[in-house]
Amino acid sequence: MENFKKIGVLTSGGDAPGMNAAIRAIVRSALDRGVEVVGIYDGYRGMIEDNMKLLGSGDVTNIISRGGTVLYSARCDEFRYEEGMQKAIANCRKHGIDGVIAIGGDGTFRGATDLSNRGLPTIGVPGSIDNDITASDYSVGFDTAMNTVVDMCDRLRDTCESHARCNVIEVMGRTAGHIALRAGIASGASAVCINELPFDEEACMQRLIAEKESGKHSFLVFVAEGNGDFGEQLTKRIEERTGIETRFARLGHVQRGGIPTLEDRFTATQMGAKAVECLLAGQSNVVVCKRGNDIVTYDINYAQNIDRMYKHKLSDEQIAALDPAVRAEMEAFCKMRLDQITELYNLAYEVAR
Q1: How many alpha carbons lie under 13 Å from residue 217 in its C-beta half-sphere?
Q2: What is d(CA 125, CA 249) in angstroms, rounded to the nearest whole number?
Q3: What is the pLDDT of residues 81-127, one digit of tens each?
Q4: Which of 149, 323, 343, 346 registers the highest number of CB atoms within 10 A of its CB?
Q5: What is the DSSP secondary structure assignment for residue 196, as one 8-state letter?
């Protein structure tokens, strides 16, 4: 700990409710240990442009209940290149920053690895409404986003019921179906389409027809984004095949906003405090994760490889180059994740019958 006098904190990539709670926990935990905290505004772009400010306890007062991120976020293509990275590191050194905590998703973690590999210790905290950090059971913002989706879909259900209508609802998540699955189950969806598992469109049509014939007046079908215009095309086919008046709704970026739930505030606080603890203990290039009820850490390269393997982004050559024991462990991890989402997928259709 004696080597750390000052640390930096940034948020990068898509904003997520609960990021402010993590920032607050990082600032308060560091100050409690006698370490100063510099807020880096606009993510890695702010690091390059020297947009930084020393944060005191008062700067994070009452931000725990605010959505978005008080440090702002921005994409930064310049940080992908060596010149940009070196400029960012030089600015951190100028401010006396001994280590950085980066809150965000997989792109944020790639930047964290770049900093660590160049001598600036960095730790990642998962913040993404998509919950698509494979190594972690949970990412900050997920619970709030799901609650926002359920609230909006309950409102759509009201008007569907009034008009005997179906709504095909596209939700966020990139290529991950977690929001669609859980919110679909909680909203009583007739069908859910996600990227991870095949969608039986014919079974969807037959279910909607059977529900209509049984006297049901409202129908919801969830589609995870990442399927191109599939949701819009499915909307047309449902109306043609079933005779049910059908509308398409893309919920969009409202899913990222709003007051964070207790779960997001609580988990963000745990993760933020853990990140400070790990950084001051000399750990670097790790990501803070939630496994069950525990807050743990994984080597960030290992976590990224698991993520790429699960998302089929590792080439055969890259997989073959892995240590056999590590490869087996990663494959088991990915199988566990797929089994979890398959179980929820089966539940969504079991309760829709």
Answers
A1: 9
A2: 32
A3: 999 999 999 999 999 999 999 999 988 999 999 999 999 999 999 99
A4: 149
A5: S
**Which pair of structure tokens corresponds to residue 154?**
């309950």
For the segment 252-275, what is each residue's pLDDT rounded down to a tens digit?
999 999 999 999 999 999 999 999
Looking at the chain, list the stretches that DSSP marks H as alpha helix, in order from N- to C-terminal side: 19-32, 43-48, 82-94, 106-117, 142-163, 178-187, 201-213, 230-242, 262-280, 300-310, 316-320, 324-350
Question: What does DSSP assign to residue 127?
Answer: B
CB neighbourhood size of 128 (10 A): 29
This prediction's pTM: 0.95
**pLDDT range class, residue 167, cuts 50, 70, 90:** very high
Amino acid at 160: C
Asked if residues 140 and 311 have their Cβ atoms less than 8 Å apart, the reply is no
Instruction: Write out the catalytic residue numbers.
Output: 130
Q: How high does pLDDT run on average in the chain?
A: 95
Choices 1.10.3720.10, 3.40.50.920, 3.40.50.460, 3.40.50.150: CATH for 143-257: 3.40.50.460
What would you measure as the largest C-alpha separation in the chain, in angstroms?
A: 72
DSSP H or E run through 11: strand 6-11
Amino acid at 9: V
- Pair of tokens at residue 343: 């179980």
Report the residue count for the chain. 353
Q: Which residue type, as a one-letter code, is found at position 207?
A: R
Query: How do residues 14-59 score in pLDDT, each as one tens digit?
Result: 999 999 999 999 999 999 999 999 999 999 999 999 999 999 999 9
- Do the beta carbons of residue 127 and residue 16 sit within 8 Å? yes
How many angstroms separate the CA atoms of 301 and 283, rounded? 14
Mind listing the pLDDT tens digit for each residue in 169-206?
Answer: 999 998 899 999 999 999 999 999 999 999 999 999 99
* Domain at 6-141+260-299: CATH architecture: 3-Layer(aba) Sandwich (3.40)
Q: What are the backbone dihedrals phi and psi of residue 296, each rounded to the nearest 5 degrees, phi first?
A: -130, 175
